[in-house]
Amino acid sequence: MDSHSPDRGFSVREIGGGLAFLVLGVVLGIGAYGAGGRLAGAGSGAAVSAAPATATPDGQALFASTCAGCHGAQAQGGIGPTLHAAARWTDTQFARAVLSGQTPTRELNAVMPRFGSVGLDGAPATDAQIAAIHTFLSTLK
Ligand code: HEC
User: Fold this and answer.
1) Nearest alpha carbon, ligand 1 atom 43
2) How many domains does the chain have?
3) How many CA atoms, within 13 angstroms, populate the side-chain half-sphere of residue 35?
4) Which of 36, 44, 57, 87 would bridge with 129, disulfide CB 3.0–4.6 Å?
5) pTM, full prediction
């Protein structure tokens, strides 16, 4: 009858553990996605080169694959905060935050990946990729 008995409910510790696991899963997922993309590119790039890696990056796709897991599909916030304010930063400010975790006012905690170190989409992040994500964010409300 008591659905809140101690051995049935989630303890705070279990929820915390689940969250850590989720973050880890997102990070690993990014790595796996990047590796898969690179393999596909290496194996079939010549035959299916309609969208080579050098084309203008798709900010929406990059955001969905790399950022939305933490910031939400519409950048509304989740594990990480909403990015609606960051959408209005300059390109330079935004790139610094994404690449090295430094916002105009502070240093971000370690949960936010330093994409300048870990790479983006399986390869070193490019200015064009960051700018494309920034542009995509500015289209969200
Ligand atoms: C593993 C989860 C995770 C992923 C993936 C992630 N972020 Fe974050 N991000 C965070 C967290 C957590 C914070 C807040 C850190 C803090 O408050 O110190 C943050 C903060 C930020 C901020 C600063 C926002 C502000 O207003 O201060 C920006 C900009 C940002 N992330 C952009 C991105 C972009 C772009 C991507 C994808 C390329 C991305 N993040 C991927 C977790 C993540």
Assistant:
1) 112
2) 1
3) 6
4) 57
5) 0.72
